[in-house]
Amino acid sequence: MRVLHTSDWHLGRQFHNVSLLEDQRHVLQQLIERVRTEACDVVLIAGDIYDRSVPPAEAVALLNETLSTLCLDMGVAVVMISGNHDGPERLGFGADLLQSAGLHIISDLDHITRPVVIERAGQSVHFYGIPFCTPERVRHQFQVPVHSFDAAHSYLVDEIRQHLAQDAPGTINVLLSHCFVGGALVSESERPLSIGGADTVSWQPMTDFDYVALGHLHAPQFRGQEQIRYCGSLLKYSFSEVSQDKGVVIIDLLPGQPAQIRTEALVAQRGMRIIEGTFDTIVAAAFDDPQSDDYLLIRLTDKTAILDAMGKLRGLYPNLLHLEKPGVMVDNPLGSLSKEQLKRSEFELFADFFQQTLGEAMLPAQSEALARVIGALHQSESRTSAPVEPGGASASPGEPS
Questions:
Q1: Which of 60, 125, 188, 342 has the most CB atoms around it within 10 Å of its CB?
Q2: CA–CA distance, 265 with 243 (Å, rounded to integer)
Q3: pLDDT tens figures, 107-126
Q4: Cα(233)–Cα(374) distance, rounded to whole angstroms?
Q5: In which region does residue 112 sit, left (phi positive, over 0), alpha (psi from -120 to 50) or beta (all else)?
Q6: Which residues, listed in sequence order, are joined to residue 18 by a DSSP beta bridge?
Q7: Residue 382, pLDDT score
Q8: 389 CB-near residues (< 8 Å, 6+ apart)
Q9: 178-204 burial, b for 16+ CB within 10 Å, e for fewer?
């Protein structure tokens, strides 16, 4: 049996206030095509299907479209579990009714020991799922003294392992789990499961399964043994992921043999990059950049401020999402102004601003006009701040106070 492992779609996600829905649609179309060309029998989605528990209508429509294509049009079975971003009750609505269409949703802990049994060409595989859950939920639902993510997860895995012993010899068993396995590589786009870093679980209890399809962490990787694996997120969801290759995992399951595992890349509609350099260098390179639509973080190394740098760069890179100016911050850290700088007059400050903005000094006529404006403002401030007489009237210039 051939299985495709994917997770962390985060449908409906925004990145720096930019909707990624069309980017997600683009990659999901590739995923569907990969299922078709690889002749996959089953698709596993290991949680975080949505980006939040109450997803936008457009995200729900995209999920419905994708699952309908896989299950109804292609006859592929789909097994998915809820993640920490999903609302388990909403995701699991109609789960019993949808099984006949080939969609199997595991979002209730009461169902963890009931395998989804899928048969293809005389081969039977049992799929077990552990949706995301907190230690408190496990403790109250099963009345067991667990107080950590590791203890709660180990308890649930042990409950499933007891049922594995009842399976016929040679049965292939697959586990889906949405969790944070200790020691794995993390990214900035993942929401912590708990405060203080106590959210990790051990991989050792999961070694009895022929394959473990993990979700939650966005970097593709395996932990402990090669069959205990994160496939990674559908897209790059933070600039910390620019060097990661996103894709899916293809698994061939054969009785009595180790799982044959390989990864297949998915190509995003837009790339994600970090560009660093001076403003002039970046602008010059932009005209010949064939990937100007990429999502960008730009770090300017200029030591002086540049007026409307974001607006000017977005004229060349429309998907510039974040601009950093470490050169300016290092050269002029907050609070480091000298007493001499603080004593500079309004005229001198504006003259510097004029020079940096236009690249040339003010003409004599402009300097004279600026001096007149500043002088008039000072006179106006003097009149409005004149002391008030006991009778309530302000003293006029030239009058005794």
A1: 125
A2: 13
A3: 999 999 999 999 987 889 99
A4: 58
A5: alpha
A6: 15
A7: 67
A8: 395, 401
A9: bbbbeebeebebbeebeeeeebbbbbe
Residue 375 CA to residue 315 CA, distance in Å, equals 39
Residue 287 carries which side chain, given as an amino acid letter?
F
Q: What is the signed CA dihedral for 163, 164, 170, 176, rounded to 10 degrees?
A: 120
CA distance 184 to 179: 11
Under 8 Å between Cβ of 197 and 236: no
**14, β-bridge pairs:** 19
Contacts of 179 (CB under 8 A, 6+ apart): 130, 132, 149, 153, 193, 201, 214, 216
Given the structure tokens 């269409």, which residue do they identify?
Answer: 101
Mean pLDDT by 10 residues, the chain (401 residues): 97 95 98 98 97 95 97 98 93 90 95 93 91 96 95 97 79 96 86 68 96 97 96 96 96 94 96 96 95 96 91 96 83 51 74 78 89 84 58 44 38
Q: What is the 3-state secondary structure (H, E, C) of the chain?
A: CEEEEECCCCECCEECCEECHHHHHHHHHHHHHHHHHCCCCEEEEECCCECCCCCCHHHHHHHHHHHHHHHHHCCCEEEEECCCCCCHHHHCCCHHHHHHHCEEEECCHHHCCCCEEEEECCEEEEEEEECCCCHHHHHHHHCCCCCCHHHHHHHHHHHHHHHHCCCCCCCEEEEEEECEECCCCCCCCCCCCCCCCCCEECCHHHCCCCEEEEECCCCCEECCCCCEEECCCCCCCCHHHCCCCCEEEEEECCCCCCCEEEEEECCCCCCEEEEEECHHHHHHHHCCCCCCCCEEEEEECCCCCCCCHHHHHHCCCCCEEEEECHHHHHHCCCCCCCHHHHCCCHHHHHHHHHHHHHCCCCCHHHHHHHHHHHHHHHHHHHHHCCCECCCCCECCCCCCC
What is each CA distance from 126 to 1, 316, 321, in whole angstroms?
Answer: 11, 53, 44
Query: What is the pTM assigned to this prediction?
Result: 0.81
Q: How far is CA 63 from CA 19, 71, 73, 100, 297, in A?
A: 16, 12, 14, 18, 29
